[in-house]
Amino acid sequence: xxxxxxxxxxxxxxxxxxxxxxxxxxxxxxxxxxxxxxxxxxxxxxxxxxxxxxxxxxxxxxxxxxxxxxxxxxxxxxxxxxxxxxxxxxxxxxxxxxxxxxxxxxxxxxxxxxxxxxxxxxxxxxxxxxxxxxxxxxxxxxxxxxxxxxxxxxxxxxxxxxxxxxxxxxxxxxxxxxxxxxxxxxxxxxxxxxxxxxxxxxxxxxxxxxxxxxxxxxxxxxxxxxxxxxxxxxxxxxxxxxxxxxxxxxxxxxxxxxxxxxxxxxxxxxxx
Length: 272
Ligand code: A2P
What we know:
Blueprint: E1 6-9, E2 21-29, E3 34-40, E4 52-58, E5 64-70, E6 79-85, H1 93-96, E7 104-112, E8 125-131, H2 136-141, H3 145-150, E9 153-160, H4 167-177, H5 183-189, E10 190-196, H6 207-212, H7 215-220, E11 230-236, H8 238-250, E12 264-268
Parallel strand pairs: 8-9, 8-11, 9-10, 11-12
Antiparallel strand pairs: 1-2, 2-3, 2-7, 3-6, 4-5, 4-7
């Protein structure tokens, strides 16, 4: 696993020329499986923190090859951030992983998604449960003032295979706590709970198991999930989403949607 993070930035930024094309402004490789990138923001694009858009490249057949990507930057940011897996035989990411600053990507400016504040009922504590690149929408929500206006406590859990894969989240927490807009509140309210499953680290295990055996609550000094206090957003593999749903339902929490807010919402992280 390549643990060295490399960053490349564009200067000066070229203006996009294709319809729906945006210019890549920064690319950062975290490991041989993970990278992040930033692109110019279409002037007309408005989105709610936590939503996703379709991103891609022109395929060899002349048709766009697009996949859903959560926007990993807050709604007030000038450029748009994304966090991606690299799948060596994946139709899109086998190519996308080679983008460089100055290159163009296709971005359909129609943001949608369920990981939004509007889909949750008011509560005291908000949990963001992520595995792998599922942390991306929370990179947006953690830097969104509404998150701190609505909740007294904000908890991000991030489970990855190994320690190098936690780096993006560690940087995110650092950035959030030093953010001019939300930093002060984040220092008071934000808690971070990273775990690994395949490499030794201070906290090991799948978050689902750490909930079931009570470790998570014990570590954080929290009694349990309650319908009255707790709200959750989940983003990860299908397995994580299904397993956490089952756990929440046992506690009596109900799934929400844009049209009918509830106690928790889930979304699948981008996979290939
Ligand atoms: P594990 O190593 O036990 O499979 P991936 O990199 O494959 O997307 O996985 C990211 C993290 O999500 C891994 O640490 C993985 O643990 C964990 N994970 C995968 N499936 C589940 C699940 N059903 N519940 C909780 N964690 C999961």
